[in-house]
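W.,

You were right to be curious about this one. When I first looked at the sequence I had no strong expectations either way, so I just let the prediction run and decided to look at it fresh. Below is the sequence, 122 residues in total, followed by the output.
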Amino acid sequence: MKLISSLLFGLAILLMSPTTQAQNTDFFVGEWEVTIKDTPNGTVNVVLSLERVEGKLVGKFIDAATSTETTMSQITEGENSVTLYFFAEGYDLYLTLQPEGEENVTGILMDSFAVEGKRVKK
């Protein structure tokens, strides 16, 4: 009886493993309040919205001040980071983010400007 219980427990653990991995790969999915510090235009606050469509991460920024949307032209997913490519203010830009705890991200815009963000709670 103990053998059967042990086998069932082991099987349950194996079945839960892919679920846990899927959640980790979708860490960035959702809405984030992002602050880009000390840009030539000052500190910029945007909402970053990321979702998975047909297996790919897609997203957009929504400017908090003007409600203007900027769509990502490309998103590259790393093992523990994501790089967002977009066009704004007349320039092709990129922003790299990595997790900082469970509900926060940190990163850098164009290897020059510090970025912080926190997940928007719904």
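Here's what jumped out at me. The radius of gyration is 18 Å. And, maybe more interesting for your project: The first strand starts at residue 30 and ends at 39.

Coffee later to discuss?

I.
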